[in-house]
């Protein structure tokens, strides 16, 4: 489970505010003065609950021994009883472990937002009544998330290393659900029976107490948890409470991020807090510290952070808050079932013993093996080793009568819980899918069968469907003529929906294995590409006076770029993915013929992006190079970048779009030097003409006059050039695409929508800007940008891909966005609608990942790659949100800390969200095919370069 950044920030704030008090507490603990750490009132309540009092001189007296965990102190002298109760002695009776076993039975691993048998993350939760479970708000923040999540009990590792079979229960938020962000709790009802018919009651529950004095500062606590979704584990008496706040406890612990929602117990196994957040140690320069003392980096995973302290919500405050929220008598009845009477109750854990709890083959008897040093190891089935004091004992003892050997259990739980069972068949969707693949997948026209979602009038719903991909969709009449059996409307209780193949599926079916690298399916590591940064890398944040020209395409792209090129005096250094627009070629040739011009240096990816439609007259990259060589002679230099998963300069795309002029200013963009990105037009002069927005790409651009930043980018471009001189001019040629011409025509809805063109924002003043490049520094800064969002996060990118299992960098960014959405930030996303089948598959995957789909829209011709945060910060650039786009390709961006600039692009986003974007993928026609030969596109079709698709990878 990724830790919630809002909770981290609030915890850090409280931790900082309590520094003086905490240091005082820790000093008293080190001086072995535990009863002076907390307030006298709380200490007296703590001792009273345990039947102890202190005289004025500190002498303890046993008055009425508590019946809760009485075995820990019964028969002991008052002084030793006091040591046991305050944790000054490490000796614990065997009953401590026996009761801990019963407590462990009530703890569940939470599968968060399960989609297509995969959770968005894991956490911990615990039963507090026959039907109610408590976890964190940042785990189950609303009823929708709860409804799509699961509670898994009995996920534990046996003594022989094998894992028990977990038992999954669904949540029932309609019966009971309350949550609060500030106290970071969620209390939700759990279904009474598991999917395989097991009773929830057999796992027991923890009664909760509002009484003060359950724990005091200096006492040791215990945590039972599923860190990072792992089998159940204990952090046993290694968690010392160092501070008690009005609503929270601070304690030192080894708790991992996955332990969000874990219960914090005292030595009597009473719940004293709900674990929810922590404070990480920092390096000298303020960065998070890893467990080895080095600066922590995101790729290490959050379980490698060195935690300085952790924070839990005081259970008494949680109870008080929850009571005030209850709305019905039925809810109050359920609430009252989790409260312990004010007097001592035995036991505080209600439920059957472990062997009954599993309702599976019985567990072996609880035995202990005693080592020579007196330490005993129990398998309960948690494996815990504790020194219980005393002299070495006999080699083994029996804690229970001998029992029959347990029947074998599966060695591991299933990979993921299955979605709810369709009422019509009694089979899970995965079982229906397997049957459908066996039956429908054998048909000649069927390419694949998968689980997806029903799309109703082009819009995704939450209803499960079988999605059958066919090579070519046909009408029922055409199917009959061709002698092809019509697919059923439903199968096994699930609706059947028919889809075209995605572009990837089309190409792989046509080209096979050799196309995998071109499609970025072979993921390299940093070690497998040859990229090395230049000496003295730079890329430092700049806060200085400069001129910034922010503008858009198609609105003002060409008018501003042409003026930029016309202003060239001596040098032009360009890094470009695609370059073929004739009017841009002419402008570069004109710039290169002015008196005093010395050099144009071009670094470019092999290939070309030509076709019909908006690129009908565009040149191939090689033709552009030939023209520039002829016009500029020795003043023109070119390097073709080697692309490839192994020994390529970058992984799959030299995707940058940057031009540096005269070492003093630069143009940076999301768009290439193609006619689709930079149409030779001035829409601002014809503001009533909508066709520019329908036919050409939306791009964000910036022209910046600042010699320092210009020199930084030029240094990297020249480094790229130097390492790729002599590269091959051609890459693997894949077939182009044939798309219906209506794809490039405005729909009736678009024609009816309002629209406008935006004037450039050009200002000379102080700006605060961070230059970003991949593979260099993009990921860390963008992750920080996302995590900084407090109110609003707007993302407009031609690519917003759902991460696959091996997409570590992309997953980290997407998870951060999802965390923000779940934390209540207004997250909205627009990505490109290039082909209906591709959009459908990605939308389904995004829903499986956990996103609220009402916050995601698609937009034809969306080619920009921008982010706006809280209308205070804006990022402009060329990085696609794909695994290689955010990691191992070459791209460039600028991150501005500037309210006015952020508002400019936020207004553009709002315009596009309202007028150009939609949640209806039916606005894209079906019928995309691969072009089979050179030449004109067939009637009614437009030839689109495969580079248009490859650029999204």
UniProtKB/TrEMBL annotation:
The keyword Signal does not apply. Residues 858-885 form the PLD phosphodiesterase domain. Residues 397-428 are annotated as: Disordered. GO terms for molecular function: phospholipase D activity; RNA endonuclease activity producing 5'-phosphomonoesters, hydrolytic mechanism. GO terms for cellular component: extracellular region. PROSITE patterns: PLD. Its main location: secreted. Keywords: Hydrolase, Lipid degradation, Lipid metabolism, Secreted. It comes from the Bacteria. GO terms for biological process: lipid catabolic process; phosphorus metabolic process. Residues 403-422 have a biased composition (Pro residues). Could be a virulence factor. Belongs to the phospholipase D family. This is Phospholipase D. It comes from Pseudolabrys taiwanensis.
């Amino acid at each position: 489970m990724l830790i919630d950044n809002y909770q981290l920030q609030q915890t850090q704030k409280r931790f900082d505010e309590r520094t003086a008090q905490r240091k005082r507490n820790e000093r008293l603990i080190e001086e072995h003065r535990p009863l002076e750490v907390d307030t006298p009132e709380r200490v007296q309540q703590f001792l009273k609950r345990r039947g102890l009092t202190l005289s004025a001189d500190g002498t303890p007296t046993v008055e009425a021994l508590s019946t809760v965990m009485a075995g820990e102190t019964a028969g002991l002298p008052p002084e030793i009883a006091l040591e046991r109760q305050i944790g000054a002695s490490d000796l614990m009776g065997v009953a401590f472990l026996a009761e801990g076993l019963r407590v462990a039975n009530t703890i569940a691993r939470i599968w968060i937002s399960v989609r297509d048998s995969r959770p968005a993350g894991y956490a911990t939760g615990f039963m507090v009544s026959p039907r109610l479970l408590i976890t964190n708000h940042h785990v189950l923040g609303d009823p929708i998330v709860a409804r799509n999540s699961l509670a898994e009990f009995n996920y534990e590792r046996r003594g022989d290393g094998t894992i028990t079979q977990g038992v999954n229960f669904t949540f029932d938020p309609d019966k009971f659900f309350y949550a609060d962000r500030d106290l970071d709790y969620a209390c939700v009802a759990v279904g009474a029976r598991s999917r395989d018919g097991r009773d929830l009651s057999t796992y027991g529950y923890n009664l909760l107490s509002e009484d003060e004095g359950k724990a005091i500062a200096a006492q040791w606590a215990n945590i039972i948890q599923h860190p990072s979704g792992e089998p159940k584990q204990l952090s046993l008496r290694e968690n010392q409470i160092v501070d008690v706040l009005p609503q929270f406890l601070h304690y030192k612990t080894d708790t991992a991020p996955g332990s969000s929602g874990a219960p914090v117990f005292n030595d009597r196994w009473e719940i004293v807090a709900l674990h929810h957040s922590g404070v990480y140690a920092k390096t000298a320069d303020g960065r998070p510290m890893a467990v080895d003392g080095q600066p922590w980096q995101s790729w290490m995973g959050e379980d490698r952070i060195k935690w300085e302290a952790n924070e839990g919500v005081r259970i008494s405050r949680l109870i008080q808050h929850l009571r005030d929220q209850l709305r019905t008598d039925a809810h109050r009845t359920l609430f009252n079932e989790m409260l312990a009477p004010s007097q001592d109750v035995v036991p505080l854990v209600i439920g059957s013993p472990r062997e009954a709890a599993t309702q599976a083959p019985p567990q072996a008897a609880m035995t202990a093996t005693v080592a020579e040093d007196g330490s005993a190891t129990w398998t309960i089935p948690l494996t815990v080793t504790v020194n219980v004091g005393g002299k070495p004992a006999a080699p083994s003892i029996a804690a229970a009568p001998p029992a029959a050997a347990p029947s074998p259990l599966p060695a591991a739980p299933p990979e993921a819980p299955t979605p709810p069972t369709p009422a019509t068949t009694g089979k899970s969707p995965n079982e229906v899918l397997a049957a459908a693949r066996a039956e429908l997948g054998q048909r000649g026209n069927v390419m694949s069968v998968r689980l997806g979602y029903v799309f109703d009038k082009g819009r995704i719903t939450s209803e499960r469907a079988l999605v059958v991909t066919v090579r070519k969709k046909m009408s029922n009449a055409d199917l009959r003529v061709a002698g092809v059996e019509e697919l059923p409307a439903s199968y096994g209780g699930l609706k059947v929906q028919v889809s075209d193949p995605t572009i990837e599926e089309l190409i792989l079916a046509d080209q096979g294995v050799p196309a995998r690298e071109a499609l970025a399916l072979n993921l390299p590591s940093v070690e497998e590409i040859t990229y090395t940064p230049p000496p003295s890398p730079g890329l430092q944040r700049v806060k200085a006076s400069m001129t910034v020209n922010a503008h858009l395409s198609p609105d003002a792209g060409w008018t501003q770029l042409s003026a930029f090129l016309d202003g060239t005096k001596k040098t032009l250094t360009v890094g470009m993915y695609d370059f073929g627009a004739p009017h841009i070629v002419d402008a570069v040739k004109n710039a290169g013929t002015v008196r005093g011009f010395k050099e144009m240096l071009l670094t470019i990816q092999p290939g070309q992006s030509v076709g019909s439609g908006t690129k009908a007259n565009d040149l191939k990259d090689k033709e552009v190079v030939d023209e520039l060589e002829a016009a500029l002679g020795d003043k023109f230099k070119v390097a073709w970048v080697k692309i490839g998963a192994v020994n390529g300069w970058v992984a799959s795309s030299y995707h940058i779009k940057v031009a540096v002029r005269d070492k003093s200013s630069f143009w940076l963009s999301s768009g290439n030097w193609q006619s689709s990105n930079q149409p030779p037009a001035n829409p601002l002069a014809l503001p009533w003409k909508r066709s520019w927005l329908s036919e050409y790409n939306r791009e964000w651009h910036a022209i910046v006059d600042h010699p320092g930043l210009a020199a930084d980018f030029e240094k990297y471009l020249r480094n790229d050039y130097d390492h790729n001189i002599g590269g091959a001019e051609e890459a693997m040629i894949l077939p182009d695409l044939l798309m219906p011409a209506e794809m490039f025509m405005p729909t009736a809805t678009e024609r009816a929508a309002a629209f406008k063109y935006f004037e450039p924002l050009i200002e000379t003043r102080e700006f605060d800007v961070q230059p970003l490049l991949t593979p260099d520094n993009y990921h860390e800064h963008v992750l920080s940008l996302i995590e900084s969002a407090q109110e609003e996060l707007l993302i407009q990118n031609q690519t917003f891909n759902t991460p696959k299992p091996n997409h570590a960098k992309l997953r980290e960014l997407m998870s951060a966005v999802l965390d923000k959405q779940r934390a209540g930030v207004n997250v909205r996303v627009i990505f490109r609608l290039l082909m209906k089948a591709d959009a459908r598959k990605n939308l389904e995957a995004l829903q499986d990942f956990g996103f609220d789909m009402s916050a995601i829209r698609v937009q034809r011709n969306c080619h920009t790659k921008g982010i706006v945060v809280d209308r205070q910060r804006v990022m402009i650039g060329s990085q696609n949100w794909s695994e290689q786009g955010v990691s191992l390709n070459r791209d460039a961006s600028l991150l501005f800390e500037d309210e006015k600039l952020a508002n400019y692009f936020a207004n553009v986003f709002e315009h596009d969200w309202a007028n150009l974007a939609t949640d209806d993928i039916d606005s894209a026609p079906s019928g995309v095919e691969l072009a089979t030969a050179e030449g004109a596109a067939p009637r009614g079709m437009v030839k689109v370069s495969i580079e248009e698709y490859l650029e999204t990878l």
